[in-house]
Amino acid sequence: MVSIIKKQWYSIVSPKVFDNVIIGEAMTSEPKNLINRVVESSLADLTKNFSKFYIKINFKVNKVENEKAFSEFVGHECLREYISQIIRSGTTRIDSNVIVTTNDNRKIRVKGILIFSRRVKRSIKSKAISLIDKIIVDFAAKNNFDDFIKAMILDDLSKEIKNQCKKLYPVSKVEIRKSRVIG
After folding, report:
1. Model's pTM, two decimal places?
2. Which of 21, 116, 147, 168 could form a disulfide with 143 if both were Cys (CB 3.0 to 4.6 A apart)?
């Protein structure tokens, strides 16, 4: 004899930082099956700012209540096609990879990219890498997790890096291309 399992739809809700927007739906027979499920959403869908179509944000469901699955931010990534498009020949690409701790003790791996408008010497490259890392670490230390995520995704951190690094050499573009929450 076949037993029929009744399944139910659950709305997946983004964190408070992203205004608790519904980012998707999932069907399951047991709400506990939704816990730790990772959902990807475009920043354009979350903020209705379609110029940010190239940023994909990952959320992980951490709590289910009353047909709603609440999620938390676990990372983001820029599309590879976008990164390839902004890098031109005759420019210098500088990558940054640093683990930061916010003032509420959350750890995040942040990967940034800076593009100088021309080729630069190795000495300027090394100064730029250390400056980028210092700016990101200091910015994270001054902010809590939610404020840091918002600043990182909505370009406040990129603008700060660009303003500081253009003193070394003219900067054409700065992006925080990837992040992942570690703890």
Report:
1. 0.87
2. 147
Of 119, 150, 122, give the one whose Cα is nearest residue 55.
150
For 25-45, write each residue's pLDDT tens digit.
999 888 888 999 999 999 998
Domains and CATH numbers, the chain: 8-77 (no CATH), 80-181 (3.30.479.30)
DSSP for residue 48? S
Can you state the percent helix, strand and coil of the chain, rounding each to 5?
35, 40, 25
**In this structure, are residues 98 and 182 in contact, taking their beta carbons and an 8 Å threshold?**
no
DSSP 64: E
Residue type, 52: K
What pLDDT is recorded for position 3? 62
Closest residue by Cα to residue 23 from 42, 36, 3, 37 = 42
Tokens 């408008």: give the residue.
117
CB 161 within 8 A of CB 174: yes
84 by DSSP, 3-state: which? Answer: helix
- Find all residues with CB under 8 Å of 85, minimum gap 6, and list them: none
Cα gap 39→144, rounded to integer Å: 23
The torsion defined by the Cα of 21, 27, 30 and 35, in degrees rounded to 10, comes to -40
Which residues of the chain fall below pLDDT 70? 1-3
